[in-house]
Specification:
five-stranded parallel sheet, 2 domains, single chain, Rossmann fold, 10 strands, alpha/beta
Length: 506
Amino acid sequence: MILDYKRKADGLDKAARKEESRRLREVLVGQQQAIREAKLPVIVMLEGWDCAGKGNLINELICEMDPRFFSVKSFERTPESEERYPFLKKFFDVLPANGKFLFMDTGWMEDVVGKYLRREIPKDEYERRVESCNTLERQLRDNGYVLVKLFLHISRGEQLERITALRENRDTQWRVSGDDLWQQQEYNRFLKTYDGFMSATSEYGPWHVLDGESRKKALYDALLAITGTVERAVSAGRYVGKATDREFPLLGHPSQRDADLTATIEPGKYKEELERLQKKLANLHNQIYRKKIPVVICYEGWDAAGKGGNIRRLAYPLDPRGFDVIPIASPTPDELQRHYLWRFWTKLPRSGHVAIFDRTWYGRVMVERIEGFCSEDDWKRAYGEINEFEKELTDWGTVVLKFWIHVDPQTQLERFEARQNTPEKQWKITDEDWRNREKWPQYEEAVEDMLQKTSTEYAPWYIIESVDKKYARIRTLQIVTDALEKAVEENVVRGVRSHRKKESKK
């Protein structure tokens, strides 16, 4: 990669290179229409040394392009101690829609390498994030994204000259930050780490190292890399990935067949337990806010199983400033233009907050599978992608709880009829509910696959028997309070260990 990089002549004189760059610009402009027709989203990620000219290069790349069909995004350097979301969220947030370009002024490479060299994250976390980057790039590829990765390279001497020139001009002094000066001092460490990162993340897309000491050559090489990659992608058509063979720590349970639908609770005990558990939950909510523990609670289940009432009892004791209930319906046209997990990444809670999803990303392997809204490859691949998504959340420290609210067909029918015959509840029953009921066997099979393939040690499924709705509410509250209590305790233990480690270093 960079360590093996040597400046090479391209065989073009200045006039020929200028003419070729002009031609390639025209090609790139034309490719905007080509990717719109092919419905391909394109990400151009430009990494490189401070003061190498990344901003200038992006400006040169986009100057002739139609601004309606591209965006540019740069990321501020946020210390790890101030991050409030999982590592990958900021990159999912900005994913382009089908048929559009996104130009990134630095991306996940700089975020990982910079924090590691600043000692904001330890080596094991650095290595984990490198794998997360590979996972992200594979998921993007498998879901039809075209990724071009560029690295703008300059020598240590060239970087020093540029920093010196900027600092000597009072109108440009502000452009040199403490980070720039620090990177110059630690150039060799950065060089080795950049090289290692690129070597470890080339499986799902090659890195293109550009000669940053010649801006015109860097522009020519960047245009060549982008237009060549896009041309190949348009010719090949939208890529659809297969399911990966990655193994996950699956529990092998639960199963709907093991559910005890006769489970019930005495009316008198219900009121007592509800009050006790809601009071306990309110206290735990204060603690997770103070300790910055994020919580994601997922509700799936049969229509009319009682999700809404269950969610109301769970949300009631929570401070409204610290939680959101997120109802998930059919994806909007804007959501359909992006990676199917995009609309969930963008709604994740910040640290210390709670997000309650009424329906979730599991629609991919249920309704989308059964109704044919995605291909077989898409939904089969989704089990692994969802496990990776939830692993990323739990590695960040998120408590992930997943509930399947379960009833039998007869109970569902009785509730459908009750809704239909009660004027103030008729809005709750739709033709789609009846159509879905006719496909009960197909949904039952899909649910069983979902439970078996995505119930992991870090994000297990819980089947909540809901023929007796009051029993279901108490059971859910018990699981949530137990999980939050455990998370708070583990957070305290980690804090003590971290403090002891710092004290021993002194």
